[in-house]
Amino acid sequence: MSSPAPNLLVVLGPTASGKTALGVRLAHALGGEVISADSRQVYRGLDIGSGKDLAEYVVDGKLIPYYLIDIVDLDIEFSLFDFQRRCFAVIEELHARGVLPVLVGGTGLYLSSILSRYRMAEVPENPELRAELAGLDDEALRARLRSAKGSIHNTTDIVDRARTTRAIEIAEYTRAHPPEPAPAFRALVLGTHWDRPVLRDRIARRLRERLDVGLVEEVRGLLDRGVSPGRLHALGLEYRFVTDFLDGTIKSRNDLVQKLAATIAEFAKRQETWFRRMERQGTEIHWIDRADFGKAMDLVRTHGLGGESR
Prior knowledge:
Elements: E1 8-12, H1 19-30, E2 32-37, E3 58-59, E4 62-63, E5 66-67, H2 80-96, E6 100-105, H3 108-115, H4 127-134, H5 138-149, H6 161-176, E7 187-193, H7 196-212, H8 215-224, H9 229-235, H10 237-246, H11 253-280, E8 285-289, H12 293-302
């Protein structure tokens, strides 16, 4: 007896790997709609540097609906919990309408939070518990965390007392208030793959294109509107380096291109490392060389998805 066809398509990959264009074309062919899994595209005003590339959402003159892009202002801290809550809600809405959700992005933590189907809980601070934990030494604090969680798999939970305290707070709250189950779905995960030298070339070319269409002007405009340099630094990559270019820390446009391209390439390597870890932890990723649409369509049809462009 064959297993049911997937009802969630995921297209992931490192930066500049063509995942958005591929995901949008697949959504068009399959009658789906796109959910962005990108930690910066949620913010209004981060257009060029975050790579929203909204023109790519138009296929054959038709706008493919998308979600979780341009949903909060820059003065809002958008958390992993916020993403997961909104993403699950969109998946449920699309399923209710009989539409295939196509989750597209490269933020590994966001993708893992969905594919693990472990729903996070919104945990308030507990002043009484914090006061109690403040009286424990480090070893007793770690023992309390082990008792609350059963074991400690995430070593970042014991990096410092504040993290350990928060981890205990979360574990004890969720034990008493179990989160609702995540939406039921069967995911098919595709990954876009390029040989590393080719990907580096794509990164450098795309960076120059973004500079040509106004990346520096975008960052200058954000600063002029009162966004702090510290906030832009926290957003990383393009926003951090261009801010340094505008304040003179980076002396020339050529230095900006060289330093930023190298840093983005390193970021892409870290993304690939994350995806390999997802595979080791049980996520099956079907890699599509060079983001080839035809090969991707062959694969989704093999797994029971199909259809004509609408």
